Amino acid sequence: MSKKKRDRGEEQGEMSFLEHLDELRRRIIYSVVAIIIGCILVGYKIDFIIEKILLAPAVKIGLKLQNLQPFGQPFLYFKVVVIGGMILALPFILYQLWKFVAPGLYQNEKKVVRLVTFFTTLCFVAGVIFSYFIMIPFMLNFGTYFGTKLIENKFDVNYYFGFVSMMVLASGIVFEMPMVSFVLSRFGLLTAKFLRKYRRHSIVVILILAAILTPTPDPINQLIFAAPLFVLYEISILVTAISEKRIKKSNESNGN
To answer: Do 238 and 134 share a domain, yes or no?
Structure first.
């Protein structure tokens, strides 16, 4: 057995089932404490977060929001505190997850996991930024000023929060396309040849999605939505091709 493979479990040795459970319990407790601390920090700056971040897209376009529930605002503040606390604690939670699984991985597996974690986070953040600064303002502007001026559009603030959360999450997930392709290629479930073969089909699907998601028939606006998806698809092909080459090279080295 090679030295690279013998690195697994050298630092802590073999652990029993009960020791694994105790380790998992400890990591979960650390994560819960991190979420509580994150909630406290968000609660300390809750007014700034709601007024300057959450409501900023609505304020920028002059959208009027209203509360239609007796405890609508308290519930809104509670949801922002909990979700914000989880977001702040997420890096620490991922670190605890890494500390739990790392002892059972080979050195080459650790490198792959680090890269996947880094680029997965990067892709998700890129999707959030794209949604917050482009998609959400555009769609809110269209929904607010569409139709006759005799009807005044006022949205429920909790519905607005749900809309913003959904759009941000959906965009972040869509931007994970390259990393999903990379993982699938590592397991041999996806190839660059397959993605290239169905490139034309994907273009049609992306244009259809852009036409559905874009609230206006303007082709320029549709292309604004579709362009990042085109780029993500091409990046997925590139990432998959690189992954295949590395797997092939690794197999050849092991064969020798």
So the answer is: no
One domain, residues 103 and 188: no
Residues 192 and 140 in one domain: no
Asked whether residue 122 falls in the same domain as residue 21, the answer is yes
- Domain of 138 in residue numbering reads as 16-175
Tens-level pLDDT at each residue, the chain (256 residues)? 444 444 444 444 567 778 888 989 999 999 999 999 999 999 999 999 999 999 999 999 888 899 988 888 999 999 999 999 999 999 899 899 888 888 877 787 788 788 888 888 899 999 999 999 988 888 888 888 877 888 888 889 999 999 999 889 888 998 999 999 988 888 888 899 999 999 999 989 888 887 776 666 667 777 878 888 899 999 999 999 988 888 888 777 766 5
DSSP 8-state assignment for residue 103: G
C-alpha–C-alpha distance, residues 18 and 20, integer Å: 5
Q: Are both 134 and 252 inside the same structural domain? A: no
Residue 11 lies in a domain: no
Residues 34 and 157 in one domain: yes
165-170: list long-range contacts, CB under 8 Å, 24+ apart. 165/83, 167/131, 167/135, 167/136, 167/139, 168/127, 168/128, 168/131, 168/132, 168/136, 170/131
Q: Which two tokens stand for residue 113?
A: 């996991």
